Amino acid sequence: MIDMTRYAGQTAGTLLNRLLDDSVSRHLGIKLDTPLTRVMLSLIALAAVVAGYRLVFGIGAASNLNDQWPWGLWIGFDVLGGVAMAAGAFMIAGAVYILNWKKYKCIARASILNAFFGYLLAAISITLDVGRSLVIWHPLVMWQINSIMFIVALHLVLYLSTLATESSPMVLEKLGWQRALDGVHRIMVGAVMFGVALSLLHQSSLGANYLIVPGKLSPLWYNKHLPYQFLASALMMGFSMVSFETILTGKVFKHSVPFDVIKGLARGIMIVGSFYLVFKLFELVQGPGLLAPFDGSLEGGMWLLEMAVGVVLPLLLLALPSVRRNRNKLFAVDILVIFGVLFNRLNVCIFGVARYNTAFGGDYFPSAMEWILTLGMIAFAVLGFKLCAKYLNLFPEPH
């Protein structure tokens, strides 16, 4: 066990000084006072005001959700999309700590931290989206094991705690708490194995939520294998998101990551993306038919856009050796995949149920407050990542 009394004598000022020592980031040239940082702080402040308004006056006053549209932007983008973007953490952590693929160790911390912020924002979004936010803690003590929503809530809490544990070595190193750091290292492999199992279950259980709406969700997306499609697309998104953030932070923070790491992630996108494409086409044949997306409907157009931009085009580009050898071109592929999977989540949550909901008098477009809160949470995640890059050893030297 970790003896925390060892640190009881350290003052809060001493700990704060250690955390704010920017010696780690001097070689990265990270500056906090920039126009972009000011914009992010403004968005965060506006989002905080919106969150307070929603808690005081209710979800109906802050959003355009209604009885026909109980889920909108906050669930479709912030939760379903945010959790998918966090999928890279369990894959990279598993590769490093379980399979001992050491070449990916240089991106493990950044991948796990990105997932932590993704899950944190998903938790905040769910808290604000439920009707009675102040009783969001009830599932932790009032178990309903027959409810898929309970499973989702439990997975979210457990995996967020696991990600915090996996990210803690950076903070403990900074504080100089060696005994606590040694304790975390001893349980790291077990924590990663637990996190891999949780994440696999959680990614698929989000898709399982929609198995209860067969009459509402368009057959272009609804099928009994929807949980597995959610998992496969999340894996594809995970590889792309890790590659995207690795290339982007390499440019912005001026740290070098071996190109072999980027190529490995691109290989993962090709393998999972090919499987996902075949899977989607198989379900299309088994369900509404191959010609269904070409019927001129809104759903058909959205399905084609999702698949063309997010799956087919990236796979065609990755088939070209000139793309696989170019970091900037792989960056463009990452953006396409991320867009495609996010669009898939919006299709399932919003566009795929639009025909049914509008037939019963419901109409939905996100309110200004919904957009502000979403943008503010994105800004919070980006700024939090930047602060960690400045003050913590987020980018260890490549092996």
Automatic annotation (TrEMBL):
GO cellular component, one term: plasma membrane
Cell compartment(s), UniProt: Cell membrane
InterPro entries found in the cross-reference section: Electron_transfer_protein (IPR052049), NrfD-like (IPR005614)
Membrane topology: Multi-pass membrane protein
Domain of life: Bacteria
Chief subcellular location: membrane
Name of a matching Pfam family: NrfD
Residue stretches spanning the membrane: 39-59, 71-99, 106-128, 140-163, 184-206, 226-244, 265-282, 302-323, 335-356, 368-389
Annotated keywords: Cell membrane, Membrane, Transmembrane, Transmembrane helix
Family from the record: Belongs to the NrfD family.
UniProt xrefs under PANTHER family: PROTEIN NRFD (PTHR34856:SF2)
Name of protein: Ni/Fe-hydrogenase cytochrome b subunit
Originating organism: Geomonas silvestris
Lineage: Bacteria, Pseudomonadati, Thermodesulfobacteriota, Desulfuromonadia, Geobacterales
